[in-house]
Amino acid sequence: MFKFKILKKDKTTKARLGIFKTPHGLIKTPNLAIVATKGGIRGLSFEQAKKFGAEIFMINTFHFFRQEKYKIIKKFGSLHKFLNINYPLMTDSGGFQVFSLGFGMEHGVGKVADIFPEEMKNSAELTRNYAENKKNGIYTENNIGVNPRDKNPRLSALKKNLVRIYDDGVEFIDPYNGQKLFLSPKISIKVQKILGADIIFAFDECTSPLSDYKYTKEALKRTHKWAIKCLDEFGKTKNQVLFGIVQGGEYEDLRKESAQFINSLPFFGFGIGGSLGKSKKDIIKVLSWALPYLDYKKPRHLLGIGEIDDILNSIEQGIDLFDCVIPTRWARHGTGFSFNGRINLKASKYLTDKKPIDPKCKCNICRKYSRAYICHLLREKEIYGIILLTEHNVFWILNLFKEIRKSIKENRFSNFKKTILKL
RNA sequence: CCAGGGGUGGCAGAGUGGACAAUUGCAGCAGGCUGUAAACCUGCCGGCCUUUGUGCCUGCGGGGGUUCGAAUCCCUCCCCCUGGA
């Protein structure tokens, strides 16, 4: 039912062209899973995304685990039936939520800690640092821990939230309603089996870039133990495949250790997860440490990454699959993709700009509408602006993947990458 | 004409003797976002400056006064709202 085949290997880089056969269709790789966390692509129909070239979608286990939402899916039979689509799907294990909901938890197993560090008080200054550092491609303690949703109105409730990581799973507070939840490898896989996505992921612990070596190593050991438990629970499931997740943060020996360990287990493919370091260059390093230890014939998915340069650099290292919220989130936040770099369409200067979002883009939005119109809609908070921009962004990024595949096929990936990154 | 209420930064609306260049929201300007607690978040938002500062100037309807000090208290004028003749 499942088969991953490498069709071509790039001559000068580690990039590869492949085809992934699943019960719900083929996925040409490299490819990007469009994210539909709670079962819907924000601002776009699955059909439209499919039309633009989307071949697989990423849905999140956590959001179907809380409040026992998976029971609804059970009644329907699977996510495919619930969403009434026949496309390949993947589900994330919920492991990421341990990170995103437990960010700042740096103090070890079982120890209770506030999610947000004390430095939150100076969030204004820290945010400024974040912006500056980000420009220079540097992540530091002063920015990393602060940027994600600081000063969120829900912060006060958050501060009370606790995450406890145990050897057998994670206890944490449901951010939506304060309910206490427990998620473990076993539970995650059970739920993912009910959800029935074609590709499912092992339940891992995603560490933060602030995690030190010692903690990252502990988390790694845990993730490895959990990997085995996931496989046990997965058993001989036929209609799904399970990907193991390589952790190890930004530490070379840990990434190597993790890649070797995960590779030694009977996973169908691999996810590269966790912290990818403190700068964009670190992503490349991390991949170059881990990927050589993974079975060359198996698919590799880089979890959560999706900025243009990172995509190109990762493919160059041998990544086959991605998933990322950027195309849809940026659209909601007013940022559009273009071959001249991202453009902030909320900016007042675009109110009089008659050009399309990206003059080189062939999507319907760029064919028909001006930046001025999109800008106007976004500023007026018309939902249609978001819808149009989402359509453009998803089209644009999927088109990039088409171009990438083509360039690998034609043995000019390296040049293609250079051309794109120069722009 | 009488009685009562009110006039605050582009708008709405706090403040009612010093901590007020003035809470907050909206609007405006700029930016951020990488396995989605995200149609979200952050910063700026009276003027001036070859010293960007516990700096200077102007400022809470107009004018005058009390006070060391007034958006805040008093007088007066103008305007708006509600009720009465």
Brief overview:
Helix 11 (252-264) packs across helix 12 (280-290), helix 16 packs across helix 17 (383-409) and helix 17 (383-409) runs antiparallel to helix 18.
List keywords for this structure.
RNA-binding, 42% helix, 8-stranded parallel beta barrel, alpha/beta, 3-stranded antiparallel beta sheet, 423 residues, 16% strand, TIM Barrel
Descriptive overview:
The structure is a single chain. This protein has helices at 46-51, 61-65, 70-76, 79-83, 95-100, 123-135, 141-144, 155-160, 185-195, 213-234, 252-264, 280-290, 308-317, 326-332, 364-368, 371-379, 383-409, 413-422, and strands spanning 3-9, 16-22, 25-29, 31-35, 57-60, 89-92, 163-166, 169-173, 180-183, 199-201, 241-246, 269-272, 300-302, 321-324, 335-336, 343-344. With 423 residues, the protein is α/β, with parallel strands linked by helices. Among the domains are: 3-104 and 175-324, TIM Barrel (Alpha-Beta Barrel); 118-155, no CATH class. The strands form four sheets. Strands 4-5-6-10-11-12-13-14 form an eight-stranded parallel beta barrel, surrounded by five helices. The protein has a three-stranded antiparallel β-sheet with strand order 1-2-3. The chain has a three-stranded antiparallel β-sheet with strand order 7-8-9. Helix 16 (371-379) crosses helix 17. The longest helix is centred in the last third of the chain and has 27 residues, at 383-409. The model is unreliable at 104-161 (pLDDT under 50). It binds one RNA strand of 85 nucleotides through helix 5, helix 6, strand 14, helix 14 and helix 17.
